[in-house]
Design a protein that fits this description.
Elements: E1 15-18, H1 24-29, H2 32-56, H3 60-77, E2 92-95, H4 98-119
Antiparallel strand pairs: 1-2
Helix pairs in contact: 2-3, 2-4
């Protein structure tokens, strides 16, 4: 999606996004609930940012990609109580372009969301 986001794909204003840099020592010290809250807050921020991007995109072909991304975020967050703000999030930064936003989206999913899901009971394989 990032490659096709050249023309007709820009943010009308900067958006707040979750920090994707991860300090594993800090992450490991958080309990499961704290990790889940951080991921939920990050997913919520990304959903808000992608919704804003959706309204500013003029490229119709990208609308379905953005819609799918938002649905996927909602699906991941459906496993938890959805937050109504970014409270509890370790850090944020501002994305000024659609490309930056989409890169954060991918990195957040590959980083903190992946780690949280790998540790989730439902995702662990029974090795007995």
């Amino acid at each position: 999606m990032m490659k096709s986001c050249r023309e007709g794909c820009s943010l009308l204003e900067s958006v707040t996004v979750p920090q994707t840099r991860l300090d594993f020592d800090v992450w490991e010290k958080l309990n499961g609930l704290e990790q889940a809250q951080e991921v939920q807050s990050g997913l919520w921020l990304l959903q808000q940012a992608l919704s804003l991007l959706r309204t500013s995109v003029t490229n119709a072909a990208l609308h379905s990609h953005i819609d799918n991304s938002i649905r996927n975020l909602l699906s991941i967050n459906a496993e938890y109580s959805p937050p109504t703000s970014a409270a509890g999030l370790e850090g944020t930064w501002t994305a000024a372009s659609a490309t930056d936003l989409l890169q954060v989206h991918v990195n957040f999913l590959r980083g903190k969301v992946r780690l949280l899901l790998l540790d989730a009971q439902a995702c662990q394989q029974d090795v007995s």
